[in-house]
Batch of 2 targets.
Target 1
Amino acid sequence: MPGKSRHNPEQLTTYYYPLPTTHHPLMFRVSRKIEFCYGHRLLGYEGKCRHLHGHNGVVVVTIEVSELDDRGMVLDFGDIKRVVSQWIDEHIDHRMILSREDPAVPALEALGEPMFLLDVNPTAENIAKLIYDFASAEGFPVVEVQLWETPNCLATYRSGR
């Protein structure tokens, strides 16, 4: 940070502040927001969400690295869009995300309704994990995926690093 020298107030100099010493490496993070629509219902649940219903979901994918690339970036935000957002668009956007065990699956299949089937209950937590697992498998150093199921309800899945 430029400032006045302690020895000569008329001379400008640059001060370099030492980085704090910690036990954890310093990290850089970027996040990309992705919006999509989906339907689901929860099995074994007694509330309103036991019925088929939909959400305008907002996913926030957070990537973390210890060093920036040669461009001074964690990664290009467009890479997340090209890979993760495209996968969401092609596989879960405007689809019913249901458990394979859901008794509604055969009827929806007969109607030709688009579905994405999970081996687990399609809770917001499990959908966040689904997206986390996909992004990680594609080589992104993901540390966290947040799924805003509604403007007031957030589920997060994060790495155990």
Note: The CA atoms of residues 38 and 94 lie 5 Å apart.
Target 2
Amino acid sequence: MRNALKLAYLASIPFLAIIVFLAIAASPAGHAQTPALSGTTPVTQQRFADGNDWSKASLDEKRAFLFGIANAISVALGWDERHVPASQTTFSRRARDGLGETSLGEGVKRIDAWYAANPGRLETPVVAVMWLDIAKPRLQGRK
């Protein structure tokens, strides 16, 4: 359970980093830095879950991680539908197109296989593996 909480926390970081970036960009001060809350580490200084975390996780924890990523993408898609013209490309729309047909089981297998084939690259974030091994090839096939 401890690893599940850690992976769920790490899964939320990319989404939170996007929110922080958007909040800073949209602030009246423009690019002004927002000071970190006392006693916390800023989201931008947190690390992403990588192959070391992935290899220690149970199957349920891996599925929970991917489910968290899918939920974050779904929330972003909902926001895009309300605020961004359909003709505009966004990260969440590209993620949906590249990852949308991937089941949790297939995602786990593909990520497991990538780390098994690249044992010297365990520091690669799981989200990067998802993009490079699953989403990007599907998106390139649609061109």
Note: The first helix runs from residue 2 to 26.
